[in-house]
């Protein structure tokens, strides 16, 4: 549940049965063991954990050039065309984002020059989840923006039992090296480096609870994109909402995982009841109902609000990963929203389009993190670093206040460093 108070006027037509944040398995100890052993034993530990967790006995982890080409040749032609369609869209959007990231240098005071540069990371690790299904969009979302950003080397890790098409997806997306390693051991290998896997500077990509915990534990010496919880979709709807469409979109996301959080926030009681009935009706014929139905029972919710202001207030508290707007004037309504991972404006903008191929990234903040961060984008792979240089007039500008501030703080070494250049300048 949210750490922020829910408005008292919100009524739950259906309340979630469980708290997704409290249901994480106690994996911290096991993940710590995996990281420690991979750091001390390298490939041997990776092999042992791959056999233990993924039932995969591997003599080597890296996918060869021949295996990459073989996976590509076996890829269904239409699947390849669709993957390349997604790659083109994600690349085009990432290139546009990169073009918006300007470098600057300004003379902030006479003789004082400040600036920043955008420098791509040298080596990035992309974790590509296997999951219940072969998620062909997953490598596209993490690898393509890295290549657009100019990352020197992109390492991809995916579970050894992942569908062969996932290898083809990594290859088409531009991965420099691909490894058949999954779970916490993959994160550990990329973080500390082994005989086979090079250590990276940053790790991105979603995964299960073990992957998430491993990312949390290695963060510091290695960067991460974010800590991703179970997927989420919320839909904001007024009296114009279409119950069939809303239920369809909720269940489309619910089939990801039994812990997916799905919800409707509405001002219309009749719509709330209609969606509740429609979800039950659609579950009767949905082939993935075992997963989607459990997610709906455990984490689904329908919240009824007395007015638009309350609907927006509750939505901003949830800060949903995916937020759809189904209101009479969706564009105007969307401008009033502040907290979300990605926003889907109007009934034509389904989360599924972004999940697969429209061009925005599907790796997004969950569990309320949309209140302080956005999702994966080309800037994730770039560090913006500052620089400064001063001429003689710049020394005259900044040295006296720096000397005084250092003296008032009792930092004599600072005071001397600030004063030395001014003293030499004055001596000249």
From TrEMBL:
Protein name: Sulfopropanediol 3-dehydrogenase
Binding site for substrate: 231, 253, 256, 322, 355, 409, 414
A single Gene Ontology CC term: cytosol
Pfam families, per database record: Histidinol_dh (PF00815)
Family of this protein: Belongs to the histidinol dehydrogenase family.
One of the GO BP terms on file: L-histidine biosynthetic process
Keyword Zinc tagged: yes
């Amino acid at each position: 549940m949210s750490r922020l108070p829910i408005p008292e006027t919100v009524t739950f037509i259906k309340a979630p049965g469980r708290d997704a944040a409290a249901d994480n398995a106690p994996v911290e100890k096991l993940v710590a063991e995996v990281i420690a052993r991979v750091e001390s034993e390298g490939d041997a530990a990776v092999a042992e954990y791959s056999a233990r967790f993924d039932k995969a006995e591997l003599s080597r982890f890296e996918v060869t050039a021949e295996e990459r080409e073989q996976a590509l040749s076996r890829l269904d032609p239409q699947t390849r065309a669709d993957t390349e369609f997604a790659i083109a869209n994600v690349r085009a959007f990432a290139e546009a984002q990169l073009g918006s990231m300007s470098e600057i240098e300004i003379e902030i005071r006479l003789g004082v020059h400040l600036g920043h540069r955008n420098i791509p990371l040298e080596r990035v690790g992309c974790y590509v989840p296997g999951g219940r299904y072969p998620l062909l969009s997953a490598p596209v979302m993490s690898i393509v923006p890295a290549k657009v950003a100019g990352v020197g080397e992109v390492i991809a890790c995916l579970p050894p039992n992942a569908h062969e098409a996932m290898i083809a997806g990594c290859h088409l997306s531009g991965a420099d090296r691909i490894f058949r390693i999954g779970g916490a051991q993959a994160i550990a290998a990329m973080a500390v480096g082994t005989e086979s896997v090079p250590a990276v500077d940053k790790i991105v990509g979603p995964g299960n609870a073990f992957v998430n915990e491993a990312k949390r534990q290695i963060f510091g010496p290695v960067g991460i994109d974010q800590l991703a919880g179970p997927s989420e979709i919320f839909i904001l709807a007024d009296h114009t909402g279409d119950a069939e469409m809303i239920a369809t979109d909720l269940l489309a996301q619910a089939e990801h995982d039994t812990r997916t959080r799905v919800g409707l926030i509405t001002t219309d009681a009749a719509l709330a009841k209609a969606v509740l009935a429609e979800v039950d009706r659609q579950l009767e014929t949905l082939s993935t109902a075992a997963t989607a139905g459990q997610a709906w029972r455990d984490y689904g919710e329908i919240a009824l609000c007395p007015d638009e202001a309350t609907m927006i207030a509750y939505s901003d508290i949830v800060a949903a990963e995916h937020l759809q707007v189904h209101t009479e004037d969706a564009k105007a309504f969307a401008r009033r929203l502040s907290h979300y991972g990605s926003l889907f404006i109007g009934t034509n903008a389904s989360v599924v389009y972004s999940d697969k191929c429209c061009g925005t990234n599907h790796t997004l903040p969950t569990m309320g993190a949309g209140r302080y961060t956005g999702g994966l984008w080309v800037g994730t792979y770039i560090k913006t670093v500052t620089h400064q240089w001063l001429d003689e007039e710049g020394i005259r500008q900044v040295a006296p206040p720096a000397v005084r501030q250092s003296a008032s703080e009792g930092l004599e070494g600072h005071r001397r460093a600030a004063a030395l250049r001014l003293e030499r300048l004055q001596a000249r």
